[in-house]
Amino acid sequence: MQKISALLITYNEEKNIKRFLDDADYADEIILVDSYSTDRTIEIAKTYPKVKLFQREFTNFSDQKNFAIQQASYEWITFFDADEHIPASLKEEILNTIKSNTSADAYYVYRKFYFKNKVLNYSGMQNDKAIRVFKKSKNRYKNNRLVHELIQCDGVVSKLRNKLDHYTYSSSEEYRNKLTSYSKLRAQELRMKNLKPNFFHFQVKPAYRFFNHYILRLGFLDGKEGYVISKLHADSVKNRYVFLNKIYEAEASQLINKNA
Asked: Mapped to the 3 state alphabet, what secondary structure does 28-67 carry?
């Protein structure tokens, strides 16, 4: 059986860390890269003998995850998030897949999306998936993505049959705060592309995002939660351009002060 490195990046994951570490009992080592948590994340992690702890300032998700990959000792890697739970059926499938000397170099895992402890079957979440199992030598996160990071696989990508449980947030405010942090990082990405926001970005794109989640992706079938999720994602799209505009304003102000 080939050995496995289970990777995780954290910041104040006290409420999730124990579940993750218990789920990762299949791994031969657990690499935890923490962004200087101020809660009990580190205290809890240190009670697990397989954990190898690194603390590092957070710049963006891709950079932090690529650093974690570099610390892995073994070729096969699993890289789940702290708010994801690995059911026994998925864990067994992962182990059997690696044991079978598969020809694939990376695997997508579909996610069952929970919001306020309710499963959302629609709202754009029905086909949600991410690469969570892969070979170290064939995969890296794309450096041009600061948020919603994507694996770039130099090989064959397949998918696993069993789903993981994705426990997102227990309140709308908690989810809004997370989306806001994503919007700020996305704004930085857009600035690097020199995008100038206009009416289309501020009004049309957010409206379409709501329509896409709530109507096209059947969010209305998820009831109140479907509406809330659709609205939060629409607000997140608008916020990215608000933050982008603030970046340009700050740059213009610095230029004026420099020339004064």
From this structure: CEEEEEECCCCCCHHHHHCCCCCEEEEECCCCCHHHHHHH
Tally of structural domains, the chain: 2
234 lies in the same domain as 136? no
The packing angle between helices 172-192 and 224-259, to 10°, is: 40
What is the distance of C-alpha 80 from the center of its chain?
9
- Asked if pLDDT for residue 168 goes beyond 80, the answer is no
pLDDT number for residue 148? 73
| Residues spanned by the domain of 196 | 172-259
Least Cα distance to 102 among 114, 93, 110, 90 occurs for 93
Same domain, 213 and 99: no
- Output the DSSP codes for 186-248: HHHHHHHTT----HIIIIIHHHHHHHIIIIIT-GGGGTHHHHHHHHHHHHHHHHHHHHHHHHH
| Nearest-angstrom CA–CA distance, 256 and 200 | 28
Range 234-241 average pLDDT: 95
End of a domain among 150, 167, 184?
167
CATH code, domain carrying 79: 3.90.550.10
